[in-house]
Amino acid sequence: MIGRLNHVAIAVPDLEAAAEQYRNTLGAEVGPAQDESEHGVTVVFITLPNTKIELLHPLGEDSPINGFLQKNPSGGIHHICYEVDDIRAARDQLVASGSRVLGSGEPKIGAHGKPVLFLHPKDFQGCLVELEEV
Amino acid sequence: MIGRLNHVAIAVPDLEAAAEQYRNTLGAEVGPAQDESEHGVTVVFITLPNTKIELLHPLGEDSPINGFLQKNPSGGIHHICYEVDDIRAARDQLVASGSRVLGSGEPKIGAHGKPVLFLHPKDFQGCLVELEEV
């Protein structure tokens, strides 16, 4: 069912400093900051040869990242995203096997303009797992 | 400096259950469990089309994963590993820019038989970062 690892998302307290570190200290290809107001985050994508790192920073008081950064003030790895061919078929199969989908269970459009869903961390070794249809 | 994302490591309380979930529920290619006694872990590698997931389980009472699982009983994402061409050159450049290397600072041989180093999470947005020479 799962295909490529689309990205690893890292929540960061200082987006500018994190982007600068990946660009200058780690020598990676770092894109511009993009506000994703419907998701309550500002994101910076880092393009590695085989996958992406997504730096996440809260946008607005209701950002889903605020609680994570309160618990992890230095930042931390927030989620991993696997690609799937058919997100509704993947969801139905996962739900049938007892896994929980966060929110309404209906895919939303994610930061790449593709349908995404998040799975319950308690059902996946404590990891927040995003599925993205590609 | 950094190249491919070599793997994402997930610490898990039940290695058998996690491997079974990736194999049967998520339909991924899951390898056999391997004891890495010098690192205090048992690992299972999951091969995705573009990178790997490393499931980590403590091996022995001094395992470096024990503390993590005490804080995160359901498990969680433990570290990410970036590939570098020359690990000593990468280390020297990082140390010169103020980053801290864990342990003695000398590379050890990792689970893939290649030299590895770990960087201080406080210097990298709360993420434990492994570098592996390829």
The CATH class of chain A turns out to be Alpha Beta
Can you tell me the overall shape of chain A? globular
Low-confidence stretches of chain A at least 5 residues in length (pLDDT < 50)?
Answer: none
Q: What's the helical proportion of residues of chain A? A: 10-25%
Order of H and E elements of chain A: EHEEEEHEHEEE
Class based on secondary structure composition and strand pairing of chain A = alpha+beta
Strand content of chain A: 35-45%
Largest interface, with Cβ-Cβ < 8 Å? A-B, 40 and 40 residues
Task: Please state the average pLDDT score of chain A.
Answer: 96
> How many structural domains in the coordinates of chain A?
1
Number of alpha- plus pi-helical segments of chain A: 3
Q: What characterizes the major β-sheet of chain A?
A: 9 strands, mixed
3D architecture notes:
- The structure is a homodimer of 134-residue chains.
- Helix content of chain A is 20%, strand content 35%.
- Chain A is an alpha+beta fold.
- The first copy, chain A, has one domain (5-133): 2,3-Dihydroxybiphenyl 1,2-Dioxygenase, domain 1.
- In chain A, strands 1, 2, 3, 4, 5, 6, 7, 8 and 9 form a nine-stranded mixed sheet that branches.
- In chain A, a hairpin with a 4-residue loop joins β3 (34-36) and β4.
- The two termini of chain A are 12 Å apart.
- The model of chain A has no long low-confidence stretch (mean pLDDT 96).
